[in-house]
Amino acid sequence: MTAATTPPITPTESARRVRSTGTVATRTLGISTVVTMGWLVAFGLGFSPADRDQRDAVRILYMHVPTAWLAYLAFVVTAVSSALYLFGKKHSLGFDRVAGASAEIGVVFMALTLATGMLWGKLTWGVYWQWDARLTTTALLFVSYIGYLAVRGLGGSHDQRAKRSAVIGLLAVIEIPLVHFSVRMWRSLHQEASVLDSDGDVDMDGLMLFSLFVGVVAFTLLYVWLLLHRSRAMAMEDLVDDQGLDRALDERRAEAAS
Amino acid sequence: MSRWRIARLVAGKDLRIERRSRVLTNQVLPFAGVTMVMFAFALDASNVLERVAPGLIWLATLFSLLVLVQRSFAIENDDGALDALRVAGVDPVAIYWGKSIALAVQLAVLEVVLLIAAVLLYGADVPLGGIVLLATTLLTATCGLACVGTLYGGLTAGFTGRETLLPLLVLPVVAPVLIGATRAVESALGTDGVALSEGWPWIGLLAVFAVAFGAGGALAFGPLIEEAT
Question: Model pTM?
Fold first, then answer.
Protein backbone atom coordinates (compact mmCIF):
# COMPACT_ATOMS: atom_id res chain seq x y z
CA MET A 1 0.00 0.00 0.00
CA THR A 2 1.35 3.47 -0.82
CA ALA A 3 1.09 6.62 1.20
CA ALA A 4 -1.31 8.17 -1.30
CA THR A 5 -4.00 5.56 -0.75
CA THR A 6 -3.76 5.65 3.05
CA PRO A 7 -6.48 7.88 4.51
CA PRO A 8 -5.22 10.71 6.72
CA ILE A 9 -5.41 10.00 10.42
CA THR A 10 -8.45 11.52 12.04
CA PRO A 11 -9.93 10.78 15.43
CA THR A 12 -12.39 7.93 15.04
CA GLU A 13 -16.07 8.58 15.51
CA SER A 14 -16.15 7.08 19.00
CA ALA A 15 -13.15 9.16 20.05
CA ARG A 16 -14.89 12.34 18.96
CA ARG A 17 -17.97 11.41 20.94
CA VAL A 18 -16.11 10.47 24.12
CA ARG A 19 -14.45 13.71 25.17
CA SER A 20 -15.17 13.41 28.88
CA THR A 21 -15.99 10.52 31.17
CA GLY A 22 -18.91 12.42 32.66
CA THR A 23 -22.54 11.96 31.64
CA VAL A 24 -25.79 13.13 33.17
CA ALA A 25 -26.02 9.85 35.07
CA THR A 26 -22.53 10.08 36.59
CA ARG A 27 -23.04 13.74 37.48
CA THR A 28 -26.26 12.90 39.33
CA LEU A 29 -24.44 10.03 40.99
CA GLY A 30 -21.53 12.29 41.96
CA ILE A 31 -23.82 14.87 43.52
CA SER A 32 -25.72 12.20 45.48
CA THR A 33 -22.37 10.81 46.68
CA VAL A 34 -21.30 14.21 48.01
CA VAL A 35 -24.68 14.70 49.70
CA THR A 36 -24.69 11.29 51.41
CA MET A 37 -21.06 11.77 52.46
CA GLY A 38 -22.20 14.99 54.14
CA TRP A 39 -24.96 13.01 55.89
CA LEU A 40 -22.41 10.43 56.98
CA VAL A 41 -20.20 13.13 58.54
CA ALA A 42 -23.20 14.64 60.32
CA PHE A 43 -24.50 11.31 61.64
CA GLY A 44 -21.15 9.64 62.25
CA LEU A 45 -19.48 12.53 64.04
CA GLY A 46 -22.49 14.43 65.36
CA PHE A 47 -25.86 12.80 65.90
CA SER A 48 -24.90 9.22 66.76
CA PRO A 49 -24.10 8.56 70.43
CA ALA A 50 -20.74 7.34 71.76
CA ASP A 51 -20.56 3.66 72.61
CA ARG A 52 -20.70 2.51 76.23
CA ASP A 53 -17.48 0.48 76.00
CA GLN A 54 -15.68 1.81 72.93
CA ARG A 55 -16.66 5.45 73.56
CA ASP A 56 -15.88 7.71 70.57
CA ALA A 57 -13.72 5.05 68.91
CA VAL A 58 -16.94 3.50 67.62
CA ARG A 59 -17.18 6.37 65.12
CA ILE A 60 -14.26 4.89 63.18
CA LEU A 61 -16.52 1.95 62.36
CA TYR A 62 -18.87 4.16 60.32
CA MET A 63 -16.04 4.38 57.82
CA HIS A 64 -14.30 1.04 58.50
CA VAL A 65 -17.29 -1.23 57.94
CA PRO A 66 -18.50 0.40 54.67
CA THR A 67 -14.99 0.47 53.15
CA ALA A 68 -14.42 -3.17 54.13
CA TRP A 69 -17.72 -4.26 52.61
CA LEU A 70 -17.01 -2.33 49.41
CA ALA A 71 -13.45 -3.60 49.15
CA TYR A 72 -14.80 -7.16 49.18
CA LEU A 73 -17.62 -6.22 46.78
CA ALA A 74 -15.03 -4.65 44.45
CA PHE A 75 -13.07 -7.89 44.33
CA VAL A 76 -16.22 -9.92 43.71
CA VAL A 77 -16.99 -7.56 40.81
CA THR A 78 -13.43 -8.07 39.53
CA ALA A 79 -13.81 -11.86 39.67
CA VAL A 80 -17.24 -11.84 38.02
CA SER A 81 -16.14 -9.49 35.22
CA SER A 82 -13.00 -11.58 34.71
CA ALA A 83 -15.20 -14.66 34.31
CA LEU A 84 -17.52 -12.79 31.93
CA TYR A 85 -14.53 -11.75 29.84
CA LEU A 86 -12.92 -15.19 29.81
CA PHE A 87 -16.03 -17.31 29.23
CA GLY A 88 -18.04 -14.79 27.24
CA LYS A 89 -18.34 -15.51 23.51
CA LYS A 90 -17.16 -12.08 22.40
CA HIS A 91 -14.29 -11.66 24.91
CA SER A 92 -15.46 -8.09 25.37
CA LEU A 93 -12.70 -5.75 26.61
CA GLY A 94 -15.39 -3.77 28.43
CA PHE A 95 -15.58 -6.49 31.10
CA ASP A 96 -11.80 -6.43 31.41
CA ARG A 97 -11.81 -2.69 32.04
CA VAL A 98 -14.55 -3.02 34.65
CA ALA A 99 -12.48 -5.74 36.34
CA GLY A 100 -9.37 -3.55 36.33
CA ALA A 101 -11.16 -0.42 37.49
CA SER A 102 -12.92 -2.33 40.25
CA ALA A 103 -9.63 -3.84 41.46
CA GLU A 104 -7.98 -0.42 41.57
CA ILE A 105 -10.82 1.03 43.65
CA GLY A 106 -10.89 -2.12 45.79
CA VAL A 107 -7.19 -1.76 46.62
CA VAL A 108 -7.73 1.83 47.74
CA PHE A 109 -10.75 0.88 49.87
CA MET A 110 -8.85 -2.04 51.34
CA ALA A 111 -5.96 0.25 52.31
CA LEU A 112 -8.52 2.52 54.02
CA THR A 113 -10.07 -0.52 55.74
CA LEU A 114 -6.72 -1.70 57.06
CA ALA A 115 -5.70 1.79 58.20
CA THR A 116 -8.98 2.58 59.99
CA GLY A 117 -9.09 -0.95 61.41
CA MET A 118 -5.62 -0.54 62.87
CA LEU A 119 -6.54 2.77 64.48
CA TRP A 120 -9.69 1.22 65.94
CA GLY A 121 -7.69 -1.81 67.11
CA LYS A 122 -5.17 0.39 68.91
CA LEU A 123 -7.98 2.19 70.76
CA THR A 124 -10.08 -0.89 71.53
CA TRP A 125 -7.73 -3.86 71.72
CA GLY A 126 -4.63 -1.85 72.67
CA VAL A 127 -2.62 -3.05 69.66
CA TYR A 128 -2.55 -2.11 65.99
CA TRP A 129 -2.51 -5.65 64.67
CA GLN A 130 -3.75 -9.07 65.74
CA TRP A 131 -3.06 -12.29 63.85
CA ASP A 132 -6.72 -12.98 63.46
CA ALA A 133 -8.33 -14.74 60.50
CA ARG A 134 -10.23 -11.80 59.08
CA LEU A 135 -7.36 -9.33 59.45
CA THR A 136 -4.79 -11.65 57.95
CA THR A 137 -7.04 -12.66 55.05
CA THR A 138 -7.73 -9.00 54.32
CA ALA A 139 -4.02 -8.16 54.36
CA LEU A 140 -3.18 -11.04 52.01
CA LEU A 141 -6.09 -10.14 49.74
CA PHE A 142 -4.71 -6.59 49.60
CA VAL A 143 -1.26 -7.86 48.56
CA SER A 144 -2.78 -10.28 46.01
CA TYR A 145 -4.66 -7.51 44.25
CA ILE A 146 -1.59 -5.28 44.21
CA GLY A 147 -0.05 -8.23 42.33
CA TYR A 148 -3.12 -8.34 40.07
CA LEU A 149 -2.65 -4.66 39.20
CA ALA A 150 1.07 -5.32 38.55
CA VAL A 151 0.08 -8.08 36.10
CA ARG A 152 -2.20 -5.62 34.32
CA GLY A 153 0.80 -3.34 33.92
CA LEU A 154 2.99 -6.00 32.27
CA GLY A 155 2.36 -4.68 28.77
CA GLY A 156 1.43 -6.47 25.58
CA SER A 157 -1.75 -6.09 23.57
CA HIS A 158 -5.12 -5.30 25.16
CA ASP A 159 -6.28 -8.88 24.66
CA GLN A 160 -3.12 -10.30 26.22
CA ARG A 161 -3.56 -8.01 29.22
CA ALA A 162 -7.22 -8.95 29.52
CA LYS A 163 -6.65 -12.71 29.37
CA ARG A 164 -3.73 -12.73 31.80
CA SER A 165 -5.42 -10.54 34.35
CA ALA A 166 -8.72 -12.42 34.03
CA VAL A 167 -6.94 -15.65 34.93
CA ILE A 168 -5.27 -14.01 37.94
CA GLY A 169 -8.58 -12.45 38.96
CA LEU A 170 -10.25 -15.85 38.88
CA LEU A 171 -7.41 -17.68 40.68
CA ALA A 172 -7.95 -15.30 43.58
CA VAL A 173 -11.36 -16.93 43.98
CA ILE A 174 -9.57 -20.22 44.81
CA GLU A 175 -6.89 -18.48 46.84
CA ILE A 176 -8.86 -16.28 49.22
CA PRO A 177 -11.10 -18.98 50.79
CA LEU A 178 -8.04 -21.22 51.28
CA VAL A 179 -6.09 -18.41 52.95
CA HIS A 180 -9.07 -17.55 55.12
CA PHE A 181 -9.68 -21.13 56.13
CA SER A 182 -6.02 -21.80 56.93
CA VAL A 183 -5.63 -18.70 59.07
CA ARG A 184 -8.88 -19.52 60.86
CA MET A 185 -7.57 -22.98 61.65
CA TRP A 186 -4.41 -21.30 62.91
CA ARG A 187 -6.06 -18.78 65.25
CA SER A 188 -9.11 -16.61 65.57
CA LEU A 189 -9.81 -13.55 67.68
CA HIS A 190 -11.74 -10.97 65.64
CA GLN A 191 -14.94 -9.98 67.35
CA GLU A 192 -17.77 -11.85 65.67
CA ALA A 193 -19.89 -9.85 63.27
CA SER A 194 -21.93 -7.77 65.66
CA VAL A 195 -24.68 -6.17 63.60
CA LEU A 196 -26.40 -9.40 62.68
CA ASP A 197 -26.45 -12.17 65.28
CA SER A 198 -26.66 -15.71 64.02
CA ASP A 199 -30.39 -15.70 64.80
CA GLY A 200 -30.78 -12.63 62.58
CA ASP A 201 -31.74 -10.17 65.32
CA VAL A 202 -30.25 -6.74 64.88
CA ASP A 203 -28.35 -5.91 68.05
CA MET A 204 -27.29 -2.27 67.96
CA ASP A 205 -28.47 1.19 68.98
CA GLY A 206 -30.94 2.58 66.42
CA LEU A 207 -29.05 5.77 65.61
CA MET A 208 -25.72 3.92 65.36
CA LEU A 209 -27.24 1.44 62.98
CA PHE A 210 -28.67 4.25 60.88
CA SER A 211 -25.25 5.99 60.73
CA LEU A 212 -23.69 2.75 59.59
CA PHE A 213 -26.41 2.40 56.96
CA VAL A 214 -25.72 5.95 55.71
CA GLY A 215 -22.02 5.04 55.54
CA VAL A 216 -22.71 1.95 53.43
CA VAL A 217 -24.95 3.92 51.05
CA ALA A 218 -22.44 6.79 50.76
CA PHE A 219 -19.48 4.53 50.03
CA THR A 220 -21.46 2.34 47.62
CA LEU A 221 -22.42 5.44 45.62
CA LEU A 222 -18.78 6.55 45.69
CA TYR A 223 -17.70 3.13 44.42
CA VAL A 224 -20.17 3.07 41.53
CA TRP A 225 -19.26 6.63 40.59
CA LEU A 226 -15.51 5.92 40.61
CA LEU A 227 -16.05 2.63 38.75
CA LEU A 228 -17.92 4.31 35.90
CA HIS A 229 -15.38 7.09 35.51
CA ARG A 230 -12.36 4.82 35.82
CA SER A 231 -13.56 2.23 33.32
CA ARG A 232 -14.43 4.97 30.84
CA ALA A 233 -11.02 6.56 31.36
CA MET A 234 -9.47 3.13 30.70
CA ALA A 235 -11.45 2.84 27.47
CA MET A 236 -10.02 6.19 26.40
CA GLU A 237 -6.49 5.09 27.34
CA ASP A 238 -6.90 1.99 25.19
CA LEU A 239 -8.16 4.16 22.34
CA VAL A 240 -5.12 6.43 22.63
CA ASP A 241 -2.88 3.34 22.56
CA ASP A 242 -4.59 2.05 19.42
CA GLN A 243 -4.32 5.42 17.69
CA GLY A 244 -0.65 5.66 18.56
CA LEU A 245 -0.20 2.22 16.96
CA ASP A 246 -2.14 3.27 13.86
CA ARG A 247 -0.05 6.39 13.51
CA ALA A 248 3.22 4.48 13.89
CA LEU A 249 2.08 1.95 11.27
CA ASP A 250 1.19 4.77 8.94
CA GLU A 251 4.54 6.48 9.36
CA ARG A 252 6.36 3.21 8.57
CA ARG A 253 4.21 2.80 5.45
CA ALA A 254 5.00 6.36 4.39
CA GLU A 255 8.71 5.64 4.91
CA ALA A 256 8.47 2.50 2.80
CA ALA A 257 6.67 4.36 0.05
CA SER A 258 9.11 7.30 -0.14
CA MET B 1 0.38 -39.89 22.45
CA SER B 2 -1.54 -39.80 25.67
CA ARG B 3 -1.48 -36.69 27.84
CA TRP B 4 0.18 -38.59 30.68
CA ARG B 5 2.99 -39.82 28.44
CA ILE B 6 3.69 -36.28 27.15
CA ALA B 7 3.73 -35.02 30.73
CA ARG B 8 6.30 -37.69 31.63
CA LEU B 9 8.42 -36.72 28.61
CA VAL B 10 8.33 -33.02 29.54
CA ALA B 11 9.22 -33.86 33.15
CA GLY B 12 12.03 -36.13 31.96
CA LYS B 13 13.38 -33.36 29.72
CA ASP B 14 13.40 -30.85 32.59
CA LEU B 15 15.09 -33.28 34.96
CA ARG B 16 17.67 -34.26 32.31
CA ILE B 17 18.54 -30.57 31.77
CA GLU B 18 18.81 -30.29 35.53
CA ARG B 19 21.09 -33.32 35.82
CA ARG B 20 23.42 -31.93 33.17
CA SER B 21 23.46 -28.28 34.26
CA ARG B 22 23.42 -29.06 38.00
CA VAL B 23 21.77 -25.76 38.93
CA LEU B 24 19.87 -27.41 41.80
CA THR B 25 22.91 -29.02 43.41
CA ASN B 26 25.40 -26.24 42.69
CA GLN B 27 23.26 -23.16 43.25
CA VAL B 28 19.83 -23.72 44.78
CA LEU B 29 20.78 -26.19 47.54
CA PRO B 30 23.74 -24.03 48.68
CA PHE B 31 21.42 -21.00 48.63
CA ALA B 32 18.89 -22.83 50.82
CA GLY B 33 21.68 -23.95 53.13
CA VAL B 34 23.05 -20.45 53.56
CA THR B 35 19.51 -19.21 54.29
CA MET B 36 19.31 -21.73 57.14
CA VAL B 37 22.62 -20.45 58.53
CA MET B 38 21.40 -16.84 58.21
CA PHE B 39 18.24 -17.70 60.16
CA ALA B 40 20.50 -18.97 62.95
CA PHE B 41 22.42 -15.67 62.99
CA ALA B 42 19.17 -13.70 63.17
CA LEU B 43 17.54 -15.85 65.90
CA ASP B 44 20.57 -16.24 68.08
CA ALA B 45 19.53 -18.76 70.74
CA SER B 46 19.58 -22.49 70.33
CA ASN B 47 16.27 -23.15 72.12
CA VAL B 48 14.50 -20.59 69.90
CA LEU B 49 15.94 -22.25 66.81
CA GLU B 50 14.71 -25.67 67.85
CA ARG B 51 11.24 -24.27 68.46
CA VAL B 52 10.94 -22.44 65.15
CA ALA B 53 12.82 -25.02 63.05
CA PRO B 54 9.67 -26.29 61.20
CA GLY B 55 8.75 -22.77 60.11
CA LEU B 56 12.29 -22.01 58.97
CA ILE B 57 12.41 -25.19 56.87
CA TRP B 58 9.32 -24.05 54.96
CA LEU B 59 10.45 -20.44 54.67
CA ALA B 60 13.72 -21.59 53.11
CA THR B 61 11.68 -23.90 50.83
CA LEU B 62 9.49 -21.00 49.66
CA PHE B 63 12.48 -18.78 48.88
CA SER B 64 14.13 -21.60 46.98
CA LEU B 65 10.82 -22.31 45.18
CA LEU B 66 11.00 -18.82 43.67
CA VAL B 67 14.52 -19.51 42.40
CA LEU B 68 13.53 -22.92 41.02
CA VAL B 69 10.49 -21.53 39.20
CA GLN B 70 12.60 -18.81 37.57
CA ARG B 71 15.01 -21.52 36.46
CA SER B 72 12.23 -23.81 35.24
CA PHE B 73 10.93 -21.14 32.85
CA ALA B 74 14.32 -19.67 31.98
CA ILE B 75 15.14 -22.94 30.21
CA GLU B 76 11.85 -22.65 28.29
CA ASN B 77 12.42 -19.05 27.27
CA ASP B 78 15.97 -19.58 26.04
CA ASP B 79 15.81 -20.41 22.34
CA GLY B 80 12.02 -19.95 22.46
CA ALA B 81 11.52 -23.55 23.60
CA LEU B 82 8.04 -22.88 24.97
CA ASP B 83 6.98 -21.32 21.66
CA ALA B 84 8.35 -24.36 19.84
CA LEU B 85 6.35 -26.71 22.09
CA ARG B 86 3.22 -24.66 21.47
CA VAL B 87 3.72 -24.47 17.72
CA ALA B 88 4.28 -28.24 17.68
CA GLY B 89 0.77 -28.55 19.09
CA VAL B 90 1.81 -30.11 22.38
CA ASP B 91 -1.09 -30.23 24.82
CA PRO B 92 -0.65 -27.34 27.31
CA VAL B 93 -2.19 -29.38 30.12
CA ALA B 94 0.51 -32.02 29.57
CA ILE B 95 3.22 -29.34 29.59
CA TYR B 96 1.78 -28.02 32.84
CA TRP B 97 1.71 -31.44 34.48
CA GLY B 98 5.17 -32.30 33.21
CA LYS B 99 6.78 -29.12 34.45
CA SER B 100 4.93 -29.44 37.78
CA ILE B 101 6.23 -32.99 38.25
CA ALA B 102 9.81 -31.94 37.50
CA LEU B 103 9.50 -29.01 39.90
CA ALA B 104 7.99 -31.27 42.56
CA VAL B 105 10.89 -33.74 42.31
CA GLN B 106 13.43 -30.93 42.74
CA LEU B 107 11.46 -29.44 45.65
CA ALA B 108 11.28 -32.82 47.38
CA VAL B 109 15.07 -33.21 47.20
CA LEU B 110 15.44 -29.68 48.54
CA GLU B 111 13.03 -30.28 51.44
CA VAL B 112 14.81 -33.46 52.55
CA VAL B 113 18.14 -31.62 52.54
CA LEU B 114 16.63 -28.74 54.52
CA LEU B 115 15.15 -31.18 57.03
CA ILE B 116 18.56 -32.76 57.54
CA ALA B 117 20.06 -29.27 57.91
CA ALA B 118 17.47 -28.46 60.60
CA VAL B 119 18.36 -31.65 62.46
CA LEU B 120 22.09 -30.93 62.27
CA LEU B 121 22.11 -27.16 62.78
CA TYR B 122 19.07 -26.47 64.95
CA GLY B 123 19.01 -29.68 66.97
CA ALA B 124 15.53 -30.66 65.79
CA ASP B 125 14.56 -34.28 66.63
CA VAL B 126 12.74 -36.58 64.23
CA PRO B 127 10.83 -39.13 66.36
CA LEU B 128 10.12 -42.46 64.69
CA GLY B 129 6.38 -42.17 65.25
CA GLY B 130 6.24 -38.91 63.29
CA ILE B 131 7.88 -40.19 60.12
CA VAL B 132 4.62 -41.12 58.36
CA LEU B 133 3.11 -37.70 59.09
CA LEU B 134 6.35 -36.01 58.04
CA ALA B 135 6.49 -37.87 54.73
CA THR B 136 2.81 -37.19 54.00
CA THR B 137 3.31 -33.49 54.76
CA LEU B 138 6.32 -33.27 52.45
CA LEU B 139 4.39 -35.03 49.68
CA THR B 140 1.18 -32.95 49.82
CA ALA B 141 2.91 -29.61 50.42
CA THR B 142 5.35 -30.27 47.56
CA CYS B 143 2.49 -31.02 45.14
CA GLY B 144 0.72 -27.79 46.08
CA LEU B 145 3.86 -25.67 45.81
CA ALA B 146 4.83 -27.20 42.46
CA CYS B 147 1.35 -26.56 41.00
CA VAL B 148 1.30 -22.92 42.11
CA GLY B 149 4.92 -22.34 41.09
CA THR B 150 4.45 -23.72 37.57
CA LEU B 151 1.21 -21.79 37.06
CA TYR B 152 2.62 -18.40 38.03
CA GLY B 153 5.96 -19.17 36.39
CA GLY B 154 4.07 -19.73 33.12
CA LEU B 155 2.18 -16.50 33.60
CA THR B 156 5.28 -14.36 34.06
CA ALA B 157 7.47 -16.26 31.56
CA GLY B 158 8.66 -14.10 28.71
CA PHE B 159 8.13 -10.74 30.34
CA THR B 160 10.79 -8.30 31.43
CA GLY B 161 10.42 -7.63 35.11
CA ARG B 162 9.16 -11.13 35.91
CA GLU B 163 11.92 -11.68 38.47
CA THR B 164 10.42 -8.98 40.66
CA LEU B 165 6.78 -9.83 39.98
CA LEU B 166 6.94 -13.57 40.71
CA PRO B 167 7.49 -13.30 44.51
CA LEU B 168 4.68 -10.74 44.82
CA LEU B 169 2.27 -13.10 43.05
CA VAL B 170 3.38 -16.42 44.53
CA LEU B 171 4.00 -15.68 48.22
CA PRO B 172 0.45 -14.59 49.16
CA VAL B 173 -0.96 -17.62 47.32
CA VAL B 174 1.26 -20.16 49.11
CA ALA B 175 0.58 -18.69 52.56
CA PRO B 176 -1.81 -21.59 53.39
CA VAL B 177 0.99 -24.08 52.57
CA LEU B 178 3.39 -22.24 54.87
CA ILE B 179 0.86 -22.27 57.72
CA GLY B 180 -0.37 -25.83 57.17
CA ALA B 181 2.99 -27.48 56.49
CA THR B 182 4.64 -25.71 59.43
CA ARG B 183 1.92 -26.84 61.86
CA ALA B 184 2.03 -30.40 60.49
CA VAL B 185 5.82 -30.63 60.76
CA GLU B 186 5.65 -29.16 64.28
CA SER B 187 3.41 -32.00 65.39
CA ALA B 188 5.47 -34.61 63.48
CA LEU B 189 8.63 -33.45 65.25
CA GLY B 190 6.80 -32.95 68.56
CA THR B 191 8.01 -29.33 68.76
CA ASP B 192 6.81 -27.66 71.98
CA GLY B 193 5.00 -30.84 72.94
CA VAL B 194 2.43 -30.63 70.13
CA ALA B 195 0.62 -33.97 69.86
CA LEU B 196 1.04 -36.08 66.73
CA SER B 197 -2.72 -36.26 66.11
CA GLU B 198 -2.93 -32.46 65.76
CA GLY B 199 -0.96 -32.62 62.54
CA TRP B 200 -3.38 -34.67 60.44
CA PRO B 201 -6.11 -32.00 59.94
CA TRP B 202 -3.45 -29.83 58.32
CA ILE B 203 -2.73 -32.58 55.79
CA GLY B 204 -6.36 -32.20 54.71
CA LEU B 205 -5.82 -28.49 54.09
CA LEU B 206 -2.60 -29.16 52.13
CA ALA B 207 -4.35 -31.80 50.02
CA VAL B 208 -7.29 -29.48 49.22
CA PHE B 209 -4.79 -26.78 48.27
CA ALA B 210 -2.86 -29.12 45.96
CA VAL B 211 -6.02 -30.42 44.26
CA ALA B 212 -7.55 -26.92 43.86
CA PHE B 213 -4.46 -25.38 42.31
CA GLY B 214 -3.63 -28.52 40.32
CA ALA B 215 -7.06 -28.37 38.66
CA GLY B 216 -7.10 -24.56 38.36
CA GLY B 217 -3.60 -24.54 36.95
CA ALA B 218 -4.31 -27.22 34.36
CA LEU B 219 -7.30 -25.18 33.11
CA ALA B 220 -5.52 -21.81 33.16
CA PHE B 221 -2.07 -22.76 31.85
CA GLY B 222 -3.13 -23.18 28.23
CA PRO B 223 -4.68 -19.73 27.79
CA LEU B 224 -1.77 -18.17 29.69
CA ILE B 225 1.08 -19.52 27.57
CA GLU B 226 -0.88 -19.04 24.35
CA GLU B 227 -0.74 -15.33 25.02
CA ALA B 228 2.69 -15.09 26.58
CA THR B 229 4.76 -13.92 23.66
Answer: 0.83
